[in-house]
Design brief:
The chain has 449 residues and is an alpha+beta fold. The chain is built from twelve helices and 15 strands.
C-alpha cells in the first residue's frame, strides 16, 4: 500500500520513515510516561496505548452487565452460579464472565444497582490509568468517576479467587463491615493475534476522594517501607508507606475497638487462606465542622428518623462501637445520609432524601432534619456501610485490605529464608501467614487511639 511522505521529510523511503516515526513516538511516550509516573493518574485518551483495549472492555462489560439487568440472579445462589462461565462474542473480541450471578448478588448486597454499575464502567468518559509500583506488572485502570478499579491479573490469581469465592462471599455475609476489598466482577478478554487478559473489577477503597489529603499502603514492617513524599503544595498523588506514618495515629475514640476487632477477623480469614503480603490501605481527610462530634443529635437523629419510618428496626446509637457481625439487609439498617454533595445522591446509589421532618417517636415534636445531601457521612459500625469509610472525631478515614492473592508457597518460604539472612533483626513482608496477620493487627493496635 502506498503511503504519503511524512510532513518535513518529503523524500524519505517508506520503511525508514516508519522506523523514524516509531522511534519518535516511543520517545514521546517515554517522556510522557516519566511525567505520568510522577502524577500516578492520567486519562486514557485516543492517543494512549490502552485506548483500544479499554474501549473493548467497556463494550464487553456493557453487554455482560446487561445480562444481569435482564435476568437478575435469584436470592439463593447455587453451585452452578459459582461455576458459571458465559462467553459473549463481539466484532473484534470475545469477553468471558466468570461467576456472573455471584458477583451480581454481591453488588446488590452493597446497595448497588446494575444500572449504576453499568453506567460507571461503560460511560463515554475515558478510563484513567493508575501508575503503580506493583511488582506484579499488572495494569490498573480506574473509572472516570474513580469509583471502580479494573486490574489485570494472572491466571493463577483468578483461579485462586474463584476457588475461594464461596467462603469469601460467606465472610462478607457474616461480617458486612469487613475491610476486605470488594471484588465485583471477574472477566477474560480475548483479542485475535493478542494475548488473552484476565481482569477483575473492584470497589475503590479511596472513594469518594475529593478531599483526601494523605494515602498510605501499610504492611506492618520496615524493610522498603518508605516513600519520598511529594513536595509541599504539589498536586502529585503519592501513596506513602509504613515508615512515613510513624508518629501519627488513627484517632477513632469509641470506634477503635470495632476497628481492632474487624482487622483481626479479616486477617484471621486471610491466614486460613494461607496468604500474606496483603496491604492495609489507609487515607484520611478532615471533617467539616458540621460533620464532627457524632454524639450530637445529627447522627442519632438519622437513626431515630429511620426507626420512625421503619418501626420494626432496632434503635442504635451512631457513636457506640458495635461488634462486627451480621446486619439486617433491609433498608432500615442502611444509613441514609451518605450523600455525595457533588452528585446530589450518595455514592452507593441510595435515594433516601427526606424533604419533610419525620416524627422521632410518639408524643415528640418533629425536629428539623438537616439537608442530608450536603453531608457525605458514614455511620459505622452500627449501620450497613458498603464503602470502606469510618469517621473519627476530626478525621474521616478510608480503610481497606487489598492484594490478597500471595500464597505462602515453597518459593515464598525460600524468599523468607533469604530475606532473614539479608535483613537480620529487621521486619520484612515475606513471613508466614500467621506472623503476617499478628503483625498487622499489632500495627493497627499501636497506631490507633
Amino acid at each position: 500500500m502506498e503511503m504519503s511522505a511524512a510532513p518535513g521529510a518529503p523524500g524519505m523511503p517508506g520503511p525508514q520513515r516508519q522506523r523514524r516515526s516509531g522511534t519518535v513516538k516511543r520517545r514521546r511516550w517515554g517522556g510522557l510516561r516519566q511525567q505520568w509516573k510522577l502524577l500516578g493518574l492520567f486519562e486514557i485518551d485516543q492517543q494512549h496505548e490502552f485506548y483500544g483495549l479499554t474501549c473493548m472492555m467497556k463494550e464487553g462489560l456493557a453487554a455482560a452487565i446487561q445480562t444481569t439487568v435482564d435476568n437478575p440472579p435469584t436470592k439463593d445462589l447455587s453451585d452452578d452460579d459459582f461455576r458459571s462461565e458465559v462467553t459473549q462474542v463481539h466484532k473484534d473480541f470475545t469477553l468471558e464472565t466468570f461467576a456472573g450471578p455471584v458477583f451480581a448478588s454481591l453488588r446488590a448486597s452493597l446497595g448497588m444497582t446494575e444500572e449504576e454499575y453499568q453506567k460507571s464502567l461503560c460511560s463515554e468518559s475515558c478510563y484513567l490509568q493508575f501508575i503503580s509500583n506493583s511488582k506484579s506488572k499488572a495494569d490498573f485502570f480506574l473509572t472516570n468517576d474513580k469509583r471502580f478499579f479494573l486490574k489485570t491479573q494472572n491466571k493463577r490469581e483468578i483461579k485462586f479467587l474463584l476457588a475461594n469465592l464461596k467462603i469469601y462471599m460467606e465472610h462478607l455475609r457474616k461480617y458486612p463491615h469487613s475491610l476486605l476489598v470488594k471484588f465485583l466482577g471477574v472477566h477474560r478478554i480475548r483479542i485475535p493475534r493478542s494475548r488473552k487478559k484476565y481482569f477483575m473489577v473492584m470497589q475503590s477503597v479511596f472513594y469518594p476522594d475529593d478531599r483526601i489529603n494523605a494515602r498510605y499502603d501499610i504492611k506492618g514492617c520496615e524493610v522498603s517501607r518508605w516513600t519520598e513524599p511529594a513536595p509541599e503544595g504539589s498536586q502529585i498523588i503519592v501513596v506513602l508507606k509504613d515508615l512515613n506514618f510513624e508518629g501519627q495515629f488513627i484517632n477513632l475514640e469509641r470506634q477503635r475497638s470495632w476497628l481492632l476487632q474487624q482487622v483481626e477477623i479479616d486477617t484471621n480469614f486471610l491466614q486460613r487462606l494461607n496468604v500474606l503480603d496483603y496491604s492495609l490501605l489507609l487515607a484520611h481527610q478532615p471533617l467539616h465542622h458540621d460533620e464532627r462530634n457524632q454524639s450530637l443529635s445529627f447522627a442519632s437523629l438519622i437513626v431515630r428518623t429511620k426507626k420512625s419510618v421503619n418501626p420494626g428496626s432496632s434503635p442504635v446509637h451512631a457513636g457506640a462501637a458495635g461488634v462486627p457481625g451480621a446486619v439486617p439487609d433491609d433498608d432500615a439498617s442502611r444509613p441514609s445520609s451518605e450523600a455525595n454533595s457533588s452528585h446530589g445522591r450518595d455514592p452507593t446509589g441510595s435515594r433516601f432524601s427526606p424533604t419533610r421532618p419525620e416524627h422521632v417517636g410518639p408524643g415528640t415534636d418533629t425536629p428539623e432534619i438537616p439537608d442530608f445531601k450536603a453531608q457525605n457521612r458514614r455511620l459505622l459500625p452500627n449501620l450497613k456501610n458498603p464503602l470502606h469509610v469510618i469517621d473519627g472525631p476530626e478525621q474521616r478515614y478510608f480503610i481497606g485490605i487489598i492484594d490478597v492473592f500471595t500464597v505462602y508457597s515453597f518459593k515464598k518460604r525460600l524468599e523468607h529464608l533469604w530475606k532473614s539472612l539479608r535483613h537480620p533483626g529487621k521486619s520484612f513482608s515475606t513471613v508466614s501467614p500467621h506472623t503476617y496477620s499478628r503483625r498487622l493487627c499489632q500495627w493497627v493496635q499501636d497506631h490507633t487511639k
